[in-house]
Design a protein that fits this description.
heterodimer; A: globular; B: 18-stranded antiparallel barrel; 4 helices
Chain lengths: 247, 428
């Protein structure tokens, strides 16, 4: 009887250890993915291209800064009709500032200020580890498959399936799902580029969505570098002044 | 066969090369320049269905014969420029416009909407001097706490407005914890016979201040305007997302010793000094089908009750009748300017707007339906609208506004009963 009890306890301990190891690995991988994609505090430029089924394109250029785990701000530089607009994210709070309106308005992560496939959550993305828990990690040979679940209902996508390249510890593909289990969009990470300062990451992210059949959106990265700015940059009062950060 | 295969491979390679070419991006193309110059050109066409026999028509178009329709064309050119030097930013935004219809032609050769100099002493401290636009409050259609700005047009609340000449300073500090941001804005808006005459003509500095807090994920503002060319007022506002899809907001303002003019049906005018409260409560809700609802209830403390408006319309009927004396007609104009002629002169309003981005897979398109109701007299306006921003640097918009309700009510006593408006705006 003692032997059976001892064997059962050992089995439970082994299983718990294995499960715990799996969870720790997943979290560690996700943390590494976060830091490999971007430094915790940075500045960067992005071009967003929305491509319609007939090949027509609409482009937006944004300058962004991020500080810490959950503060991001972005300024539209192009097209001229959107120039001067800025967006701010402090954790779950998001605002949009339009110069002609003259005051920041609260927006939600699911909506899109650019139209097309990219949502506000994609444009003002914060660390995955901030928004998601790792629910499972699967070894797929050259890649890991991380299944992530949103920590709160405030997050734009309820679940993510992230395929991570083992060698570079960078995502290759992310599928985003709604709480109903419906696939909302797929992000494909391409064109690994050395940005300098030890930052080597995909310079192109392509997105398509079954909700926008035939449409595709592309996000191109440039000028990504570490930068520390003051906390006050991530306040509503600074939204009309974001241009001052550009050198 | 081999040649065909090689040709296909080469063609594929060329296509791949082209694809790569398409997606190149170099941030240096967007390096900051010491000067910036932008603007837009807008052409607007309006068709108005007039109430040619109404007193409001005769008030708006004195001496003109009754007309049923009016076609109006407005061309606007806006130019804006910015210059940067170290921590200084100089900017200006000016408009020129021409508006013409069968009854009135107006030319505006150049109006500075805003412009001045900013010194950014740091990211947490800045000072401004010049003509500036302050937008206070969280309300969408109305802003009772908008103490130092021109009135918002509830029919077009996001339209750009002209600022006032002022000197201001803004200080902000971030914290970790439930109170994450604290900000203070202080300003003076000097007035005299030549400066800020739309704000007031009395020689005064007109101080005002705003304290902003982001605490517990909620935006709070406390505002104050000192007594001067306008009465003293203070108030507060808030805005918070209860869920990612539901935002609630509110404003409350108290104005002290404000002049209030009333007119009786027989034309007797009376002026009193009153204290009043105005407030607003609203929400913004995004449904699963991506329809954004905005609902706002507005209590206009300075407004007139349905009975008082009835008296005014009765007086206006008599004062603007074709056989009325010029003195009486002139008095009607003075009364209209003293408060009754404002965009929303009533006391209780409900605003509802349903808008959808990209309806029926119409990418870059948007459609909305807006209603505004005077809850006391039951009159209303309804406004379907479509817009499209799919062409680079173009904005196209079309809307129709219908006014309806019982006779002798706010929206049925306007000079027009409907308006169709389309505009194209090109940004450069």
């Amino acid at each position: 009887m003692k032997k059976i009890l001892f064997a059962s306890l050992a089995l439970v301990a082994l299983l718990a250890s294995a499960l715990s190891q799996s969870a720790i690995d997943g979290v560690a991988i996700l943390q590494k993915v976060d830091r490999n994609l971007e430094p915790e505090s940075y500045e960067m430029y992005r071009k967003l291209i929305n491509i319609e089924p007939d090949g027509t394109k609409k482009e937006f250029v944004l300058f962004s800064v991020k500080k810490g785990k959950s503060n991001v701000a972005a300024l539209f530089l192009s097209p001229t009709s959107d120039k001067g607009r800025s967006t701010l994210r402090q954790g779950d709070n998001m605002w949009l500032y339009i110069p002609s309106v003259g005051k920041p308005m609260r927006i939600t992560s699911q909506q899109s200020i650019t139209g097309g496939v990219f949502s506000n959550a994609d444009i003002l993305r914060i660390d995955y580890t901030e928004e998601y828990n790792v629910t499972s990690t699967e070894d797929q040979g050259d890649t890991y498959l991380l299944k992530l679940k949103a920590r709160t209902g405030e997050v734009a996508y309820d679940q993510l399936k992230m395929v991570v390249d083992k060698k570079t510890v960078l995502p290759l593909e992310i599928e985003a799902y709604a709480s109903s289990g419906m696939l909302i969009k797929t992000l494909r990470f391409k064109d690994i580029k050395d940005f300098g300062g030890g930052i080597k990451r995909p310079a192109t992210v392509e997105t398509d969505s079954p909700l926008y059949k035939g449409y595709k959106s592309v996000m191109l990265y440039s000028g990504l570098k570490k930068r520390e700015v003051q906390d006050e940059v991530f306040t509503q009062g600074f939204m009309p002044r974001l241009e001052e950060l550009r050198k | 066969m081999k040649t065909a295969f090689v040709t296909i491979l080469l063609a594929l390679a060329a296509m791949a090369a082209n694809a790569e070419e398409e997606f190149k991006f170099d941030a240096s193309e967007f390096d900051k320049k010491p000067f910036e110059f932008n603007g837009y050109l807008e052409q607007k066409l309006e068709t108005l269905k007039l109430r040619g026999d109404s007193p409001a028509y005769r008030l708006t178009y004195p001496g003109e014969s009754a007309q049923d329709w009016l076609l109006r064309s407005t061309s606007t050119l806006e130019l804006s420029g910015k210059a940067y030097y170290k921590s200084l930013t100089a900017d200006v935004r000016a408009q020129a416009s021409y508006q013409g219809d069968d009854l009135v032609n107006t030319t505006n050769y150049g109006q500075v909407m805003e412009g001045g100099l900013r010194w950014s002493a740091g990211t947490d401290l800045s000072f401004d001097i010049g003509k500036r636009v302050q937008r206070w409050g969280k309300g969408y259609a109305w802003s009772p706490v908008g103490f130092v700005e021109r009135p918002k047009d509830p029919a077009d609340p996001t339209a750009s407005r002209e600022g006032f000449v002022m000197a201001s300073g803004e200080w902000t500090r971030s914290f970790s914890g439930p109170l994450s941001t604290l900000g203070f804005t202080g300003m003076v808006v000097p007035t005299n016979d030549n400066l800020n005459t739309d704000f007031g003509r009395e020689a005064d500095l007109n101080p005002a201040a705003k304290l902003y807090l982001l605490a517990f994920d909620t935006d709070f503002d406390l505002m104050w305007r000192g007594q001067g060319a306008k009465p003293e007022a203070f108030g507060l506002d808030f805005s918070r997302n209860l869920t990612p899809a539901l935002e609630v907001h509110g404003e409350w303002a108290r104005t002290l010793d404000a002049p209030r003019n009333t007119v009786s049906a027989s034309g007797l005018t009376r002026s009193t000094q009153v204290n009043f409260n105005s407030w607003l409560l609203g929400l913004r809700y995004l449904t699963r089908s991506e329809i954004t609802w905005i609902a706002e209830y507005y209590r206009n403390g300075a407004g007139y009750s349905a009975d008082q408006l009835d008296d005014y319309y009765t007086f206006l009927d008599r004062a603007m009748a074709p056989e009325a004396s010029p003195t009486l007609s002139s008095k009607a104009r003075t009364v209209a300017q003293s408060g009754y002629g404002k965009a929303n002169p009533g006391q209780d309003y409900l605003y509802l707007k349903a808008s959808v981005s990209e309806p029926f897979d119409w990418v870059y398109g948007a459609a909305s339906l807006t209603t505004m109701t005077n809850l006391q007299d039951g009159s209303w306006q309804i406004q379907p609208e479509v817009s499209y921003t799919g062409f680079a640097n173009w904005e196209l918009r079309g809307r129709v506004v219908f006014f309806g309700g019982q006779p002798d009510a706010e929206f049925t006593t306007k000079a027009s009963s409907a308006r169709l408006e389309v505009y194209a705006r090109y940004f450069f």
